[in-house]
Design goal:
This protein is of the alpha/beta class. It folds into two domains: 133 residues, Aspartate Aminotransferase, domain 1 (Alpha-Beta Complex); 244 residues, Aspartate Aminotransferase, domain 2, CATH 3.40.640.10. It has 13 helices and twelve strands. Strands 2-8-7-6-5-3-4 form a seven-stranded mixed beta sheet, with helices on both faces. Strands 9-10-12 form a three-stranded antiparallel beta sheet. Strands 1-11 form a two-stranded parallel sheet. Helix 7 links the parallel strand 5 and strand 6. Helix 1 runs antiparallel to helix 8. It is globular. The chain binds pyridoxal-5'-phosphate. The site of pyridoxal-5'-phosphate (PLP) has 13 residues, from helix 4.
Length: 386
């Protein structure tokens, strides 16, 4: 009999929760109307369901439904946020502040904006992956139009001081965008308390479907103006043209509602699992190093470096366990992770890093089996290189 495969890469993506799938299914076949073609019940029923999802998403982050725009995922939301603000506010200034450990969906937009004449400040991070609020405040100039700092890092799980960043943005009347792809549904995010003006959300990190996301943008006090990136039929208040992915949107709405409803129980479980992983690794391999913040981190993420063990070499040895070396979005690249490099410990620490992301459907028994395989593979590699 084949061994059970154990999936521990939940920062890359999650499986669709069966409860989410069940809610989505009728929207492929029965309620298949175009939510923008509402002269009949087919379209109207689809629109009603989309409206409900908009409410579910707004409620999850303490926003208003009309402040939510549907997109194809957090990548697109980040693009609309960065390029949209840049275009609308270029007359005020051409300076944007971000951080070195952002996802490529933000960093690549910033690089493109630099080619278009914008000035970007990339804030450094400390050994835990945190930016300093003093650095942020010092970087602000009269030309600064946007601060874009991710809510939680996809590789090392470090959670940014969101309320502190929001307070500074508000004080200087600068828009605050946060890439919330890893955070929304996993840790409490309140756009009012945190003064977040624009927030990117992804469906597939929270047991919803892939290819769907959302963008929150504050409608007043301050009103966050955005220019579209995609033009066409004027859907989503002209901000994101294109026929809505109705089943995907319904799925994301349901997924986010479930995630928020169950956040306490999942957090408790994830903490137990990641604490167990850390304790066990430390016991078996005392030289193991934790990447990211020991406390201010996503409950379902643990990222460690094992000195002298190449993570790519380790991962090919694992037959039944799925973990990742660095970010899944850049696995075609042989470059060491820009996030781990930014922590300041040198390239080896990055080459030796593995990311373990536990999930809703993992049991402690799964974790025990997976850890045995991981530890055995490490010991095996050590004996070869000794
Ligand atoms: C922090 C972060 N931003 C953006 C993305 C891209 O999200 P999506 O796959 O929904 O485009 C990811 C996914 O890997 C992510 O982790």
């Amino acid at each position: 009999m084949e061994n059970k495969k154990i999936y521990l890469d939940h920062n890359a993506t999650t499986q669709v929760d069966p409860r989410v799938l069940e809610v989505m299914l009728p929207y492929f076949t029965e309620v298949f109307g175009n939510a923008a073609s509402i002269d009949h019940d087919f379209g109207y029923d689809a629109k009603r369901a989309v409206d409900k999802a908009r409410e579910q998403i707004a409620k999850a982050i303490n926003a208003q439904p009309e402040e939510i725009i549907f997109t194809s995922g957090a990548t697109e939301s980040d693009n609309i946020a960065l390029f949209g603000v840049a275009e609308k506010y270029a007359h005020k200034g051409k300076h944007i502040i971000t951080c070195v450990t952002e996802h490529k969906a933000v960093l690549d937009c910033c690089q493109r904006l630099e080619q278009q004449g914008f000035n970007i400040t990339y804030l450094p991070v400390d050994e835990y992956g945190l930016i300093s609020l003093e650095d942020l405040e010092a970087a602000i100039t009269p030309q600064t139009i946007l601060i874009s700092i991710m809510a939680a890092n996809n590789e090392i799980g470090t959670i940014a001081p969101l309320a502190g960043i929001g307070a500074i943005a508000k004080k200087y009347k600068i828009l605050f965008h946060s890439d919330g792809a890893q955070a929304v549904g996993h840790i409490p995010i309140d756009v009012q308390k945190m003064n977040i003006d624009i927030l990117s959300i992804s469906g597939h990190k929270i047991y919803g479907p892939k290819g769907v996301g959302a963008l929150y943008r504050r409608k007043s006090n301050p009103r966050a103006l955005l220019a579209p990136v995609i033009y066409g039929g004027g859907h989503e208040k002209g901000l994101r043209s294109g026929t809505l992915n109705v089943p995907g949107i319904i799925g994301m709405g349901c997924a986010i509602e479930l995630a928020i409803k169950e956040i306490k129980a999942h957090t408790k479980k994830y903490k137990e699992l990641t604490d167990y992983i850390w304790t066990k690794l430390k016991e078996e391999l005392p030289e193991v190093l934790l990447n990211g913040h020991p406390k201010e981190r996503l409950p379902h993420n643990i990222n460690v470096s094992i000195p002298s063990i190449e993570s790519k070499a380790l991962i090919v040895q694992l037959k039944n366990v799925a973990i990742s070396a660095g970010s899944a979005c850049t696995t075609t690249s042989v470059e060491p992770s820009h996030v781990i490099i930014a922590l300041g410990f040198g390239e080896d620490r990055a080459h030796n890093a593995i990311r373990i992301g536990v999930g809703r459907f993992n049991s402690i028994a799964d974790i025990k089996i997976a850890l045995t395989e991981i530890v055995n593979a490490i010991k095996n590699l050590k004996s070869i290189t000794a």
